[in-house]
Amino acid sequence: MTDTAPASTPASIPASTVPAAAAAPEWGDPFPLGLASFGISALVLASVMSGMIDAAATPAVLSLALALGFLTEIVAGVIHFRRGETFPGLVFTAYAGFWLSYALLVQFYAPMVTADGAAVTGMFLLAWALFSTYMLLAALRTNTTTVAIFVLLCAVFYLAALGAFSESTGLGHLAGYVLVADAALALYASAAVIVNTTWDRTLLPLP
């Protein structure tokens, strides 16, 4: 009887001849984008809130609120969620909602309010203050810079809400100056992340 060669099996195929599965493309870090979007929008808004620029310039704030505060922040947030990063994903998508709702309120709905306008504006700001407060609690497990950004942001919302309820221009201006500091810190953090990444070493410290 003549011996026959055993049939080849998948296990006998050398591994080097099996094509490797294509690696899924990695998402870049959207954190500096979200911070820059917030920082730029907030800085321009703060210049009006503080009284440094006349309130008649508010339409310029709304353009940034929609193009940067809303659009690019929501992009950053969705990418964070895609990367499995819930905290920054929630931060950027939620505050994207703030910028959109702020633009809609100022441009379309506030002029329609005929009673209790100060009260409803105060409640709008207070609701965001409460949200920012529990996000601050979550931020305590991140880093010092993020905590500082949320501390300042909470102060902005509480001061602005109190100013709206009491119809106090002074408190509104104070909230604007605090927002200037918050926007500057967010922009610094954005710069630190992207500069340190591209230089592959720490040029701008980010505690």
Automatic annotation (TrEMBL):
InterPro entries: AceTr, Gpr1/Fun34/SatP-like. GO terms for cellular component: plasma membrane. Keywords: Membrane, Transmembrane, Transmembrane helix. It is found in: Membrane. It is a multi-pass membrane protein. Coiled coil: none annotated. One of its GO terms (molecular function) is acetate transmembrane transporter activity. Its main location: membrane. Pfam families: Gpr1_Fun34_YaaH (PF01184). The keyword Transmembrane helix applies. The chain crosses the membrane at residues 33-53, 60-81, 87-106, 118-140, 146-165, 177-199. Belongs to the acetate uptake transporter (AceTr) (TC 2.A.96) family. This is GPR1/FUN34/yaaH family protein. It comes from Nocardioides aromaticivorans.
